[in-house]
Amino acid sequence: MKILVLNCGSSSVKYKLYEMPAKDVLAQGVVEKLGLKDSFLKMTLPNGEKVVLEKEMPEHTSAVEFILENLTSPQYGCIKSFDEINAVGHRLVHGGEAFKESVLITDEVIAKVNECIDLAPLHNPPNLKGIDAIKKLLPSIPQVGVFDTAFQQSMEPHAFMYALPYRVYEKYGVRRYGFHGTSHRYVSKRACEILGKDYNNARIITCHIGNGASMNAIKNGKVIDTTMGLTPTEGLMMGTRCGDVDPGALAFIMGKENLNVEGFSNLINKESGVFGVSGISSDMRDIENAIESGNERAKLAMDMYNHRIKKYIGAFMAELGGCDIIIFTGGVGENQTSTREIVCAGMEYCGIELDNELNAKTRGKEIVISKPSSKVTVMIVPTDEELMIATDTLTLAGK
Questions:
Q1: Alpha-carbon gap, residue 78 to 96, rounded angstroms
Q2: Tens digits of residue pLDDT in 189-215
Q3: Whether pTM exceeds 0.85
Q4: Average pLDDT of the segment spanning 270-274
């Protein structure tokens, strides 16, 4: 069964074509600068070669159409006709409380996702445009929606509610939803597969650490707590997002700098985090280079970044009643050896014993990086959200 996975952003469309259930990637690429005159499609061919095709694509339908053309083209294609595509899976960011799992997309589903636009105004509209594009171009093909927020819907009210007037929850849905759910679900299940552990009888902490970062506490297959909230701004310090901040401090800054809603949003989402503290970059590779050059603010940013991760590991271990597996994933989690070492240092009393030598030489592959004597298994598991989407699409569309 050939399944096309689409991840539609405001100015980009990422895609992968899978042969399922074999999990073979037949084609992959991304449209960038969507809506601009210099938009282009960047493809990765099966042999690893990168091909860039420039074409003006004013909106999502034209982008999806160009992707489909190249999937069937004599030069770059891997299928002869659109009829070979059996289903399409979509990444959908926010499903609110309406979606606790992936679903076949119907008019009713689209209407409910539209109702969640206020909760994700930058993400849900382009996600919906991708669905609409497939409806126009491949009207008879089943589509499946896989939500970033669905996995965390198992949280109990005491974990997801804010201590705000209850009316703002009833009127506006203000609560903690969590994000990166597809990634957290994939790596937690994959870790148990690798270790031969029962997923429904395990205490797991997943650390999706990158420019955007979040952590989940998973007990017996269900999320009991997460770091992100109503929006992806809460929780860990990130590339440009502030993470946890005293809301009183934010009100103070708004008054002092006379910020409107847009200015305030830019402050906490685009001007803060690693970039805001360091004044250099949101990219941790740049921060590491600056630290080596003796930049004190870069060191401060790194120390703050690592401190937040360690603090949440301790909090989640308390909630879980101990921990069996800690997983690092995402761009930083998979590749930044120093963060993994610092986060796990001094945690032997919690049963965490990192193999520092193995950790120091390991990047971006599935591996256990804790010592054999460690009571908590520490792992790197590269995330694969697209494969998770393809798997859910196979299950639902296959019916």
A1: 37
A2: 999 999 999 999 999 999 999 989 999
A3: yes
A4: 96
Does 21 sit behind a cis peptide bond, omega within 30 degrees of 0 on the bond before it? yes
Longest Cα–Cα distance in the chain: 62
Which tokens in the block code for residue 332?
A: 């930083």
My answer on whether omega of the bond before 58 falls inside 30° of 0, hence cis, is no
Provide the β-strand partners of residue 377: 325
Q: What is the pLDDT of residues 40-59, one digit of tens each?
A: 999 998 888 899 999 999 99
Which three-class secondary structure state does DSSP give residue 54? strand
Tokens read off for 216: 């989940």
Which three-class secondary structure state does DSSP give residue 30? Answer: strand
CA gap 128, 122 in Å, rounded: 11
- Report, as residue numbers or ranges, the catalytic residues: 148
Q: Identify the band that residue 241 occupies on the pLDDT scale cut at 50, 70 and 90.
A: very high
Q: Which of 242, 385, 337 is nearest to 227 (CA)?
A: 242
Q: Is the pLDDT of residue 368 over 90?
A: yes
Residue list, annotated binding site for ATP: 14, 208-212, 283-285, 331-335
Token reading at 196? 């031969």
Q: Which residues are annotated as a binding site for substrate?
A: 91
Q: CB–CB of 393/21 below 8 Å?
A: no
Cα distance between residue 295 and residue 397, in whole Å = 53
State the Cα–Cα distance between residues 101 and 73, nearest whole angstrom: 35
φ, ψ for residue 29, nearest 5 deg: 175, -170
Q: Summarize pLDDT for 92-131 with one digit per residue, the tens.
A: 999 999 999 999 999 999 999 999 888 888 788 989 999 9
d(CA 226, CA 159): 8
pLDDT of 399 over the 80 cut: no
Give the residue numbers of the binding site for Mg(2+): 7, 385
Parallel/antiparallel/unpaired status of strands 143-147 and 213-219: unpaired
Q: What structural domains does the chain harbor? A: 2-150 (3.30.420.40), 197-380 (3.30.420.40)
Tokens 């074409």 locate to 55
